[in-house]
Specification:
The chain is mainly α and 238 residues long. 74% of the residues lie in helices and 0% in strands. InterPro entries: TNNT, Troponin, Troponin_sf.
C-alpha cells in the first residue's frame, strides 16, 4: 500500500558534529489500473513474451541457415567453375601439344618429300643430258629398236610417262585434318599439271605454226628457183 501522507525522515550521524542532508521520497504515485472486470495475468504475459522470443530466435536461426546454405551453394559453384576451367586448360594444352606434334611431323614429311623431288629432278636432268649427248646415235638406236620390235607406241609412251609421274598416295595412316591437307596438295598438283598441259599445247601450236611458215618459205623459194631457171632457159633459147 502506498501512504497518501508525506513522511519525512532525518538522519543525523554524529561524526565530528556534521549533519547529512535529508532524503525526500516521491509521493502520490498511483498504480496502473486495469479496465473493469479484467485481471492482470502475469503468466500469460510471460508466455507471450517467451513465444515472441522463441519466434524471433527461430527466424534468426532460419535466416542463418538460409544464408549458410546460400554461401555453401556459391562455394560449390565456384569450385565447379574452377575445376571446369582447369579441365579446359588441360584440354587446350593437350590439343596444342598434339597439333605441335602433327605440325612437326608434317614439316618433316614435307622436307623429306622436297628432298626426294629434288633428287628425282637431278636424276631426270642427268638423264636428259645423257640423252642429248647421245642424240647423234638416236637414229641408229631407233632403227635397232624397230628391228627388234621394241619401239613404243604413242599410247605406251603416254602410259609410261603417267606411271613415272604418278605419286603414291599412302593415306591409310592420315587423320581427317591431314587428309584435307593431302587433298589440297593433290588439287594444287593437278592445277599445275593443267597449267603445264596448257603451256605445252600452246608451245606445240607455235611450233606447228613455225613449221608451216618454214615450209611455205621453202616452197616459195623452190618455186622461185624453178621460175628463175625457166626464165634463164627461155632467154638462152632466144
Amino acid at each position: 500500500c502506498w501512504d497518501t501522507n508525506e513522511e519525512e525522515r532525518e538522519h543525523v550521524e554524529g561524526s565530528e558534529g556534521e549533519t547529512k542532508p535529508r532524503t525526500k521520497y516521491i509521493t502520490n504515485i498511483a498504480p496502473p489500473k486495469l479496465p473493469d472486470g479484467e485481471k492482470l495475468d502475469f503468466d500469460d504475459l510471460h508466455r507471450k513474451r517467451l513465444e515472441k522470443d522463441f519466434n524471433d530466435l527461430q527466424s534468426l536461426i532460419e535466416m542463418h541457415f538460409s544464408s549458410r546454405q546460400k554461401e555453401e551453394e556459391e562455394l560449390v559453384a565456384l569450385r565447379s567453375r574452377i575445376e571446369r576451367r582447369r579441365a579446359d586448360r588441360a584440354e587446350q594444352q593437350r590439343v596444342r601439344a598434339e597439333q605441335n606434334i602433327e605440325r612437326q611431323a608434317r614439316l618433316a614429311e614435307e622436307r623429306t618429300r622436297r628432298e626426294e623431288e629434288a633428287k628425282l629432278r637431278a636424276e631426270e636432268d642427268a638423264r636428259k643430258k645423257n640423252v642429248f649427248s647421245n642424240k647423234a646415235f638416236g637414229g641408229y638406236i631407233q632403227k635397232g629398236d624397230v628391228k627388234k620390235g621394241k619401239k613404243l607406241t604413242g599410247r605406251e609412251k603416254k602410259t609410261k610417262a603417267l606411271l613415272e609421274r604418278r605419286k603414291p598416295l599412302n593415306i591409310d595412316h592420315l587423320n581427317q585434318e591431314r587428309l584435307a591437307e593431302k587433298s589440297r596438295e593433290l588439287w594444287l598438283w593437278l592445277r599445275q599439271l593443267h597449267a603445264e598441259k596448257f603451256d605445252l599445247a600452246e608451245k606445240l601450236k607455235r611450233q606447228k605454226y613455225d613449221v608451216n611458215v618454214l615450209r611455205n618459205r621453202v616452197s616459195d623459194h623452190q618455186r622461185g628457183s624453178k621460175v628463175a631457171k625457166a626464165t634463164r632457159g627461155a632467154k638462152k633459147l632466144r
